[in-house]
TrEMBL record:
The chain crosses the membrane at residues 76-96, 102-120, 132-150, 156-175, 187-209. InterPro entries: TM_pro_TauE-like, TSUP. It is found in: Cell membrane. GO terms for cellular component: plasma membrane. Its main location: membrane. The lineage of its organism: Bacteria, Pseudomonadati, Pseudomonadota, Gammaproteobacteria, Lysobacterales. Belongs to the 4-toluene sulfonate uptake permease (TSUP) (TC 2.A.102) family. The keyword Transmembrane applies. It is a multi-pass membrane protein. It comes from the Bacteria. Keywords: Cell membrane, Membrane, Transmembrane, Transmembrane helix, Transport. This is Probable membrane transporter protein. It comes from Vulcaniibacterium tengchongense.
């Protein structure tokens, strides 16, 4: 069931902010998934609809980076394919999991990702010598792609951190190539979830328009200033939305807490 027009307008505002933050530092799904669930969508539909909107925003950021010649498509073709295949696997697993389990599990994942964003070390701005080769990069892309297909928030940050720490890219270059890998994993998960009938098109496309605008803004801000000062805002907003989910009377974790205590 599609949310009402007021809810769609609110979701578009969240998607714009998330698209900007996602292009800067990754993690936009930490805002959009709890917002979609707060609007009444079940977990799989929320994740599926988020894939629709985030695919447009990520594609927009890829175009912006490509225009500035920041993406080496030849070097990252195989890792992008690996991220695609991993995401297909993750999305298939997502649809096989009990929805009631997901309703309780997703808020816990959101809290874990928020803490990761708060505590993760800052990446270097300069390119360095990479520790591993292309085979390792493909393996890492497959693993993170599988996570993206199953859930998603934090994927951009995981990829950026890996590209900086393991493969020697500077922060801006890693951010640009993260968008390419994330686009591959988003499209793979979206295809699987569309086939499963889980995407809400009106909400997803409306959010996509806002995410595109946010992604363009965020990509240009990233190239100019990097992702400084984004994490505190992202973590605060994400935890506030997650707290709202946990406070819902039907949340399985709340019911379990009531039974135990």
């Amino acid at each position: 069931m599609e949310p009402g027009l007021e809810a769609v307008a609110a979701l578009m505002a969240v998607a714009f902010v998330a698209g900007t933050i996602d292009a800067l530092a990754g993690g936009g799904g930490l805002l959009t998934i709890p917002a979609l669930m707060a609007a009444g969508l079940p977990p799989v539909a929320a994740i599926a609809t988020n894939k629709l909107q985030s695919s447009f925003g990520t594609a927009s950021a890829v175009v912006a980076f490509a225009r500035q010649r920041r993406i080496d498509f030849r070097r990252f073709a195989v890792p992008a394919l690996a991220a695609f295949l991993g995401s297909v696997l993750g999305a298939c697993v997502l649809q096989a999991v009990d929805p009631s389990f997901l309703a309780g599990f997703v808020p816990l994942l959101l809290i874990a990702m928020a803490l990761y964003f708060l505590l993760a070390p800052k990446a270097s701005e300069e390119d360095r010598h990479g520790r591993f080769g292309r085979g390792a990069m493909a393996a890492v892309a497959f693993a993170i792609g599988a996570y993206d297909g199953f859930f998603g928030p934090g994927t951009g940050s995981f990829l950026t951190t890996a590209l900086v720490a393991l493969f020697g890219l500077g922060l801006v270059s890693a951010t640009a190539h993260t968008k390419l890998l994330n686009l591959a994993s988003n499209l793979a998960a979206l295809a699987v979830l569309v086939a499963g009938g889980h995407v809400l098109w009106l909400a997803g496309l409306a959010m996509a328009v806002a995410s595109i605008l946010g992604g363009q803004l965020g990509a240009h801000l990233a190239m100019r200033w990097g992702g400084r000062a984004v994490r505190p805002l992202l973590v605060t907003m994400s935890l506030a939305l997650t707290a709202k989910l946990l406070a819902e009377p039907g949340n399985p974790l709340l019911r379990a807490w009531a039974r135990w205590f």
